């Protein structure tokens, strides 16, 4: 028991104050995320970015919430993800599950950026979400998948630029994604200036992680204040996103 000293009371007060500020930050972040999720078309302010015409590709881009996406597009998004990623998941501790990937892709919170050719062929997509991650408002890129026939023509880079525009216009503090270390395409994200995020897990003697978390900051806003949690990371490619 004992009596509290003046110093320990002050410490308790400081802690309570800190906790209060943290809660306020999180609730502010949740408000910003909720606003973004109310949008109908996040691409509307950027008409120039609705078309990609380069290296023999002529594509139209649009953004929709998963719930509003046509069934054939949903099916295609799953099939393409499976085709591009299954083997990579199976080669690491994640493993592949059709059910888990479908559940993740079809979540009510999922948004889609889709690229389509003029002939109507589906070329690539990103599954992203506006979310609070470690106390910070972020655009989390869960998936960026291009049909193998259109890779390495600049479309992936363009689509990431579109996600950044959408994120920063809507006051997200960073764009975050998870890449598998065994995926050669993680070099793509480094090439377009994504850097190791502070939430990325660090290997030690007991555990090594098959993935890393990369991010790009919104330069217009102050650096995010992170709230530590034992987060598992989301994924541009994995099941690690369940908090
Ligand atoms: C990864 C992916 C999205 C990249 O999109 P992309 O349109 O093919 O890439 P870009 O043409 O925009 O590449 C931009 C730059 O990134 C780098 N890059 C892209 N692919 C690369 C690769 N496989 N290896 C090394 N660097 C690569 C290059 O520097 C490239 O510039 P350059 O072509 O002028 O040299 C696409 O290839 C893809 O869908 N891959 C399969 C799925 C996947 O692994 N997704 C990522 C994890 S979710």
Automatic annotation (TrEMBL):
Top EC class of this enzyme: transferase
Catalyzed reactions: N-terminal L-seryl-[histone H4] + acetyl-CoA = N-terminal N(alpha)-acetyl-L-seryl-[histone H4] + CoA + H(+); N-terminal L-seryl-[histone H2A] + acetyl-CoA = N-terminal N(alpha)-acetyl-L-seryl-[histone H2A] + CoA + H(+)
EC identifiers of the protein: 2.3.1.257
One GO cellular component term noted in the UniProt record for this chain: nucleus
InterPro entries the record matches: Acyl_CoA_acyltransferase, GNAT_dom, NAA40
GO terms for MF: histone H2A acetyltransferase activity; histone H4 acetyltransferase activity; protein N-terminal-serine acetyltransferase activity
Subcellular localization: Cytoplasm; Nucleus
Residue ranges of the region described as Disordered: 1-27
Family statement drawn from the similarity comment of this UniProt entry: Belongs to the acetyltransferase family. NAA40 subfamily.
PANTHER family named among the record's database cross-references: N-ALPHA-ACETYLTRANSFERASE 40
Protein name: N-alpha-acetyltransferase 40
Organism (species): Phaedon cochleariae (Mustard beetle)
Source lineage: Eukaryota, Metazoa, Ecdysozoa, Arthropoda, Hexapoda
